[in-house]
């Protein structure tokens, strides 16, 4: 079974990783390769394609440069069009050779690549459909990807229900599988770094109480981005913890967030550090050893519970997404952030459930793909 795996960012690659290992372990059944684009090829975002090459789990079939300079609404819209244009000629070459294209999430780059595949009648498998993020334009892209896909791997039963609602009449010809969150399977296969190993690799001492910060713009209200990040930075000024910041994705006005966070680090080099990407192993290790998470990233809602960490989920970017009891919603206001941090600072590690599953998603997805690969050719 020939499979193309679309990866456009450090985030989706880290989520895919346990599935990539499973596909690579069965080359007789799966001929899978990576189609790399988006921020992976951007030096501004750490050129994470280098990490993919170092790990060499699956071969890279194509690299597609389609980002543009700038992060204005016009620049983002242009990147959507450019990505679709470049993938249109790519799919013209690849469509006859492929049985399945796998895509994940909600990014505008992912939407553009899959939209370009639609006229070729290619079979699309989508991860993390049915979720809701009311504070980001990603919400519309995610539901659009659901409509373009025929095979769906969702993270909760509630999300499965929503996928069926979005599909409407098309649900009759679709397959919807509640497998849990694929990224949690990483916790079964990765040996997380100790505090000492983390310091050796990244030069950051997590034996100090540390707030792990990942913050992205609320792209449905991008005019408020400067105000939002100013409130966050004002709160960081008051927090006693060391601050470890992972920089934002390529979103509308993401440069405003970057500049404000970089200026904070420059003012506080003794207790703050910013990195483009820690990689999957580094990021989960940091999550394991940090005091708490602070920001508005999906990893706070999906993975943090399995690593025993509380999360201060800021603002509305993730509004509507299912979350466990470890996630504390906090307005994007300095005083509210400082007060919420004081409330969770001394709590023992979270030991409750994770609504996104038990880490067996990779096995469940592989079982579904195996059944497709072993079926008659017409089923693929």
Folded structure, characterized:
By secondary structure, the chain is of the alpha/beta class. 41% of the residues lie in helices and 16% in strands. The protein is built from 14 helices and 13 strands. It has helices at residues 10-24, 49-55, 73-94, 108-117, 138-148, 157-167, 186-189, 195-202, 225-238, 254-267, 279-289, 298-302, 334-344, 361-374, and strands spanning 2-7, 31-37, 60-64, 100-104, 124-127, 151-154, 175-178, 210-214, 242-246, 272-275, 292-295, 311-314, 327-330. Strand 11, helix 12 and strand 12 form a beta-alpha-beta unit. It is globular and about 60 Å long. The mean pLDDT is 94.
Order of helices and strands: EHEHEHEHEHEHEHHEHEHEHEHEEHH
- Describe the sheet with the most strands: 7 strands, parallel
What does the average pLDDT come to?
Answer: 94
How is the largest sheet built, in terms of strand order?
3-2-1-4-5-6-7
Shape: globular
Oligomer: single chain
Structural class: alpha/beta
Alpha carbon gyration radius: 20 Å
Strand content: 15-25%
Number of discrete helical segments? 14
Number of extended strands: 13
- Unreliable stretches: none
Considering DSSP H and I runs of 4 or more, what fraction of the residues is helical? 40-55%
